[in-house]
Predict the structure of Antitoxin HicB.
Amino acid sequence: MDKATYAVEVVRDGRWWVFEIPELGTGGQAMSLAEVEHEAQGVAAMWLDVPPESVSVDVSVRTPESVLAEWRQAALDEEQARAAQVQAAARRRAAVDALLEQGWTVIDTSYVLGISKQRVYQLSTVRDRERSSTPRRRAAG
């Protein structure tokens, strides 16, 4: 047996969530949004004089457009922030690499940029040259 599905529109009204089932011309209320689906299913079943399990509902909450717009803008802001972080990381790597490629030591690079030697190694993409932090001494002989 296929379940009949009814659209349910919900709006906040004071302390209550008021729902309407337009197709049936009826509705009800619930104390929490989490209860709306169960309550609406029960109201629809009672209205149709059928068992509740033979009815399903599709709940749609009316939300102020200004709130949804703010939410969408926040998502865009986060996306832009992630892009800015990627850009900043690329610039930091480029700065570290530029100094190392000019022959600066890891210690000097870390000192000037205010980061640890370990961070210099993490940021550097220069892998094919010596990046020693101390000059090597030749053995006497």
User: Anything to note?
Assistant: Residues 128-133 have pLDDT under 50 and may be disordered.
